[in-house]
Amino acid sequence: MRAYVLASAALILSASSANAAVLTIAGSNARSCYLAAEARSPSMAALADCETALSVQPLSDDDRVATYTNRGILRMVGGDRSGALADYNAATALDPRHPEPYLNKSVLIFDEGDNRVAAQFAERALELGTHKPGVAYFVLALTKEDAGDVKAAYHDLLRASQLEPRWSLPRQELARYQVRPR
Questions:
Q1: 3-state SS string for the chain
Q2: d(CA 90, CA 159)
Q3: Quick check: is 39 in a domain?
Q4: pTM, full prediction
C-alpha cells in the first residue's frame, strides 16, 4: 500500500497556517485519521482512530509515516504542540525522505518563533518534493521578512501565490507590499 499526499492545505500560522495531510490507502482507522486531518478536526475519536491505526493495524511504512503526519496535524490543530512535534519526528525517523512531515514541522516551528529552524525544514520539504511547495515558500517568505530580507520575502510570496492560486493568504500578504521601479 502506498501513501498519497492530498493536494490541499489550510495554514494555522498566527491567524492562519498550512498542513499537508497525507492520504493513506490502509484500513479504515488510518483513513479516518487522514480524513480528520484533512478536515482539521482534532476530536478525541479522530485521535483514537490514529492511535488504533498506529498500534493495531498492519500498516506499510508509507502508511505509518502518513498516519504519524496526520496525527501530528490533529495534535497541532488541537494545541498539543509537543505531541505534534513527536509525531512529525516519528514520521521522519521512519522515512527521512518523505517531505510532508518536514513541511508540517516548519509550520509548527515558525509558529513557535524559531524562524531559522522553520526555514530549514521548509527548504528540506522543497528539496524532497513536497506536494505543497506554496506552503513552504510562504513559510520561507515570512521567515525572510522577519529577518529583514523584504525583497526575498516578496519573491517567495509571489511564488507561493503562483503555486497555490486558490489560497488567499499569500495574496493578502502581497497586498502589504509596494513595488517601485528603480
A1: CCCEECCCCCCCCCCCCCCCCEECCCCHHHHHHHHHHHHCCCCHHHHHHHHHHHHCCCCCHHHHHHHHHHHHHHHHHCCCHHHHHHHHHHHHHHCCCCHHHHHHHHHHHHHCCCHHHHHHHHHHHHHCCCCCHHHHHHHHHHHHHHCCCHHHHHHHHHHHHHHCCCCHHHHHHHCCCCCCCC
A2: 30
A3: yes
A4: 0.85
Domain that holds residue 69: 4-174
Count of beta carbons in the 10 Å neighbourhood of residue 86: 15
Residue 66 lies in a domain: yes
- pLDDT of 182 reads 74
Q: For residue 182, is it within any domain? A: no
How much is the CA Rg of the chain, to the nearest whole Å? 16
Domain CATH number, residue 25: 1.25.40.10
Number of domains composing the chain:
1
> What CA–CA distance (Å, rounded) separates 116 from 76?
20
**Is residue 136 included in any domain, yes or no?**
yes
pLDDT digits (tens, 9 = 90+) for 85-110: 999 999 999 999 999 999 999 999 99
Distance, in Å, from the CA atom of 160 to the CA atom of 144, rounded to the nearest integer, reads: 14
